[in-house]
Amino acid sequence: MPDTAELRRLDLAHLWHPFTQMKLWPEEPPLIIDRAEGAWLIDTDGNRYFDGVSSLWVTVHGHNVPEINQAIIRQLGTLDHSTLLGLSHPQAIRLAAELARLTPPGLNKIFYSESGSTAVEIALKMVYQYWQHLGHKEKKTFVALENGYHGDTIGAVSVGGIDIFHQAFKPFLFPVHRLPQPHCRHCRLLLTYPACDLACARKLEDILQQHGHEICALIVEPKVQGAAGMIIQPEGYLSKLVAICRKYGVLVIADEVATGFGRTGPMFACELEDVRPDLMALGKGLTGGVLPLAATLTGDHVYQPFLGEFDEFKTFFHGHTYTGNPITSAAALANLELMAQRNILENVRVREAQLAAGLARLAELPHVVEIRHQGMMAGIELAKDAGRDEPYDPSLRMGHRVIMACRQHGVIIRPLGDTIVLMPPLSSTAEEIDHLLKAVEAGISEVTG
Ligand SMILES: Cc1ncc(COP(=O)(O)O)c(C=O)c1O
After folding, report:
1. pLDDT digits (tens, 9 = 90+) for 223-233
2. Model pTM?
3. Which domains does the chain have, with CATH numbers?
């Protein structure tokens, strides 16, 4: 058995955890995960927890999947790493072809990186340079959504709109045009769906009419704004945005980092409204949740203007040391093969219905103000007075207290403010979803009284 006390001491001495107020970290002894089996995480004292957050939204088939592990081991025996700068290798080639086959039509060029943030950063740089090559020197900005989240690199933060995360870096960020968040309960335009006729999407038309000449692209998390608290866009919203972009010749970047690979139901959330973006950012579930790999996809129309003679310097000057690493690529290929073999999308369809039924019960709890759900992503928003839609004082950290209570019931989840996020692995069984729902119901009831 690992020495939990010693590991905790070293953690407190040396680790700086992401998105974590480190002053508060020592107040609750850190839970140290030692092992995993399927959808379950096991701590250094042998306690088992259902991974209700899919280890930050990535897990597809559960942990330690023999087929993915074998693919990694096989790859280690042939080629551990070789650069894509000036060379190529079979796994990056095969994976690129597979991604081109699986994604919506027109996305046939694949540029690799290692995280969702870099996949987005690359998309932004790519479309900016695309317009520069076409002679549109005035195109220097983007349209993005209020409360959008696209990662933590400077470009991704610029298009991101979550003030609490992004405010601190304001002087470094480039300006973008913002669309009102399509959250019907808190409609910024004080309208009601569907009578509103998607007025929040039509705002894009006003922006493009006035500023279209300086705008490179719209970036959007299709169908679900995850980090904003699982905000589900109303029916027709996404396709409306894309139609307006088409009318004004502005490109569309779909950030499918969170929604891709079956998380919302179909393979990609864009399929829910049959939209075909010009660029797509992928990450998270690409390797089944095992290794860091991301991809930015686009089509020939964006690719062609980069072609030229060496001394025209039209090259896309971007590339990371580990871009398209063979081991991560092999893991991704194994994941995609397994998704088809095990018909993961069918499991998502069945579990989505089970989750919906369970969540309908949770909606009856007195302090639940709204439940938002799509596929295997759900947000349960808590409020001090659900009837009057009056939030808790943030200093009470109700979301945090609920997820800590859920741990006592054998479930690991993470909140976004006072929204309890459920992101079970896509392979979850009926019993596991039941366990998750029961633990969450108990945790909410205990904490909210
Ligand atoms: C929609 C979206 N884009 C980008 C990112 C950033 O991905 P990463 O954390 O891998 O950099 C995230 C992460 O949650 C995300 O949800």
Report:
1. 999 999 999 99
2. 0.97
3. 31-61+343-448 (3.90.1150.10), 68-341 (3.40.640.10)
